[in-house]
Amino acid sequence: MNEKVLLVEEKDGIAVLTLNRPQVMNSFSVALLHSLKEQVDALKFDNNVRVVIITGAGPKAFCAGADLKERTTFDELQVKEFIFTIRNLFTAIEYLNKPVIAAINGVALGGGTELALACDIRIAAMNASMGLTETRLAIIPGAGGTQRLPRLIGRGKAKELIFTGRRVDAREALEIGLVNQICDPESLLEECQKMAAMICETGPIAIEQAKYAINYGLETDLHTGLGIESNAYWVTIPTEDRLEGLAAFQEKRKPVYKGR
Question: Of the residues 103, 108, 110, 114, which is catalytic?
Fold first, then answer.
């Protein structure tokens, strides 16, 4: 079987990764997990890519979570291995050294919502629905959902959604802070590309250090977080990009950043 389970397109500093299993709502098979992990690992060292967009193939689903038909063939050890793999993959996405935008083009359930939570920014189509529905299958979110959701929308609301396993539509997702923005389905990728293009205008080293400071600082007390921010700032001071930014400001032109 030669099906490409992950499509990759790179243009103008933006990489679009498309989960390509629309016949099963882009659910995660072992093959898709490994393909996505391989691509994320490669992007970490690809200086030509500034921003990553993750989406799903077709008009119906971003990702419906784990492929439950495949899961039924697993023994207990294989289930543990699958959960270990997907959890580590989503952590790698969260801590990737460049921004990741989730283009949520439809249903995002279980691991699909957890994938979106691991991204830095979430933009959802109006037909999207999201939810951590695992408790309805007598399990719990195992790819970071119990940790990332309360950090994003608050403990009480996260407990409500996880305990009930209910779905939220795009408007409610926006209201509770689960997504950053909603739009018509036909303009979803365009909106994501616009945001990615804005990010591409900024300094690459600055973006990497800002993401580092936010991710690691939020896991500490304020005093330690401020220290992390200071150290990240110091990294930007000796760069050519910082001098280019100042020169461009003085000369009233757009800066040309090179990541140096």
Answer: 114
